Amino acid sequence: MNDGQAIEMKIRTEDLSVYYGGFQAISHVNVEIPARSVTALIGPSGCGKSTFLRSLNRMNDLVATAKTTGKVYLDGQNIYDPGEDVVALRKRVGMVFQRPNPFPMSIFDNVAYGPRIHGVRDRKALEEIVEKSLSAAGLWEEVKDRLNKSALALSGGQQQRLVIARVLAVEPEVILMDEPASALDPVSTGKLEDLIHELKQRYTIVIVTHNMQQAARVSENCAFFLAGHLVEYGPTKVLFTRPQDKRTEDYITGRFG
Fold first, then answer.
1. Is the predicted pLDDT of residue 98 greater than 90, yes or no?
2. Residue 124, class by beta-carbon neighbours within 10 Å (0-12 exposed, 13-18 middle, 19+ buried)?
3. Is residue 256 over pLDDT 90?
4. 137, 165 contact by CB (below 8 A)
């Protein structure tokens, strides 16, 4: 994947497995995710890709029956080490969910929520963070005159970009996206994909998608999961044109199952 050039790896998993009770959702996954790039996770429903995504910021910890074994390294530090600060981890590794989930408060307060939680109280500082974050999410020009209006009044596409602004406001290093466009119309999806292209200049992005065309458009690297196993991983162009595993080819071409 490096074409002779050294590539910085932001995340590395080592023998990563996740169980829900007696069910093994992902099995012994080993993968390296480059910094400042987009990595897409593809595969049929229930294959483990969302479980894998949530393991990268320990969101599975919130599931009572979940157990994780193996290691996930973020900049060389295992995030599952005892004593790891999970709050600090989730500040570094933000998450955007399938459906937009703005808080029932103003646009301004949605974006300022994270910085306030982390101790920012100065109004001017908050205003600067809100403008910077909304601008980075491609939403500032659309909402700058109604920052005190309810975020719930925004369209679905605007709400999803607002959620991304909320993530950006705490200055993460990694952004996890779990099918962020699945509830959006084609125009909003296009805007979101344009935004992803812009954000990858500064952030490491890992995205779960069922849309093969979207995976091809937005990602540099792609991982195909099946029944909890990582079947194939590599540059997206190679995976989509010269897959090494016939199951990968069948899934990408729609012949799967």
1. no
2. exposed
3. no
4. yes
Q: Which residues of 51-81 are buried (b: 16+ CB within 10 A; e: fewer)?
A: bbbbbbbbbbeeeeebebebbbbbeeeebbe
Facing residues of 76 across strands? none
CB 34, CB 9: distance < 8 Å:
yes
Q: Over 90: is that where the pLDDT of 99 sits? A: no
Is residue 155 within 8 A of residue 191, CB to CB? The reply is: no
Measured in degrees and rounded to the nearest 5, phi and psi for residue 230 equal -80, 105
The pLDDT tens digits of the residues spanning 82-96 come to: 999 999 999 999 999
Residue 219 identity? S
